[in-house]
Backbone:
């Protein structure tokens, strides 16, 4: 969540942004729940494509892996 907050503040201040690849990487290594909550909480990158599609793809893959490991 913190990276989304920081990126939002950087954008508002006209500063250099956190790369989308870094945000997606943090989601891929387990931060998906925080990323999804932060997007809504901070209203940041909610309509950005293909970022949104990639984030949801990461979430679906993680859900599938959890289901696979649990079975």
Residues:
């Amino acid at each position: 969540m913190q990276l989304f907050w920081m990126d939002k503040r950087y954008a508002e201040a006209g500063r250099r942004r956190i790369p989308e690849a870094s945000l997606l990487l943090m989601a891929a290594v387990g931060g998906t729940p925080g990323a999804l909550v932060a997007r809504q909480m901070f209203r940041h990158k909610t309509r950005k494509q293909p970022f949104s599609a990639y984030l949801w793809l990461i979430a679906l893959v993680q859900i599938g892996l959890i289901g696979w490991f649990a079975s």
Notes: Residues 19 and 25 are 10 Å apart (CA to CA).
